[in-house]
Amino acid sequence: MAKYDYDFKKLVVEAYQQGKGGYGTLARHYGIPADSTVHKWVKIVEKLGFDALHRRKTTKFILSNSSKMSYTII
Q1: Closest residue by Cα to residue 9 from 48, 55, 47, 57
Q2: Which burial class, exposed, middle or buried, applies to 57 when counting CB atoms under 10 A from its CB (0-12, 13-18, 19+)?
Q3: What is the pLDDT of residue 54?
Q4: Quick one: pLDDT band at residue 24, thresholds 50, 70, 90?
């Protein structure tokens, strides 16, 4: 799965908001494999604002009993 940085996501969502294309058109233009990715970003921004496009950093720790735990660092 490709990872996209905040500035790229913002660029694509702003293009959508400015009427430069629909989900599929913008996905193809920016080289995003699925138009559902653009749709998801637009809906996130509409609901939560641009700050919600920042990736969360998750660190995994392996405990001595070999179970994995995941922590989100904000």
Answers
A1: 55
A2: exposed
A3: 86
A4: very high
d(CA 74, CA 44): 18
Q: What is the C-alpha to C-alpha distance for residues 38 and 65, in angstroms, rounded to an integer?
A: 41
Cross-strand bridge partners of residue 60 = 70
* Lookup: tokens for 48: 């939560």
Q: HSE (CB half, 13 Å, CA atoms) of 74? A: 2
What is Dmax (Cα atoms) for the chain? 53
Query: Rounded mean pLDDT of the chain?
Result: 84
Q: Are 21 and 31 in contact (CB under 8 A)?
A: no
Residues 6+ apart with CB under 8 A from 45: 13, 52, 53
